[in-house]
């Protein structure tokens, strides 16, 4: 039996993940490189689904992501690698502001990185 706490638990659970995602989209929607992609999005839905996605991705056994398939949602948005990298920069900055440890931050960014192929469909750099 593995008694090691999940990243989700080490992070501080539901409240902290909610805070991370809220602050994150606040930044993203002010970012010239990213904001146009969200013009047609229902942001309260995105935040809600993203919180569930992140909770599950970070190891919360009580959360089952029930949102849309990531490829279906992102494949026609023409997202570039540069935009994906910027997405990670915002996440990193906010997690650092929240005083997440270096190791936990690396783990979080590694999880996100695994989804690059489901998000980035543009061949542009
Ligand atoms: C540059 C990076 C990204 C951009 C510009 C972007 C953009 C978007 C947009 C516009 C939507 C709303 C789509 C719609 O309502 O039709 C969305 C939804 C979503 N995205 Fe992303 N995304 C990015 C990266 C990611 C990453 C890295 C993940 C996960 C690790 C992710 C997970 C999700 C989820 C879970 C939803 C909600 C799906 C639903 O509503 O059921 N996105 N994204």
Automatic annotation (TrEMBL):
Protein name as catalogued: Group 1 truncated hemoglobin
Pfam families assigned to the protein according to its UniProt record, in alphabetical order: Bac_globin
InterPro entries: GlbO/GLB3-like, Globin-like_sf, Globin/Proto, Hemoglobin_trunc
Entry keyword set: Heme, Iron, Metal-binding, Transport
CDD domains the UniProt entry points to: TrHb1_N
PANTHER family xrefs: CHROMOSOME UNDETERMINED SCAFFOLD_37, WHOLE GENOME SHOTGUN SEQUENCE, TWO-ON-TWO HEMOGLOBIN-3
Originating species: Paramecium tetraurelia
Family statement drawn from the similarity comment of this UniProt entry: Belongs to the truncated hemoglobin family. Group II subfamily.
GO CC annotation: cytoplasm
GO molecular function, one term: metal ion binding
Keyword field contains Isomerase: no
Any single GO BP term: cell redox homeostasis
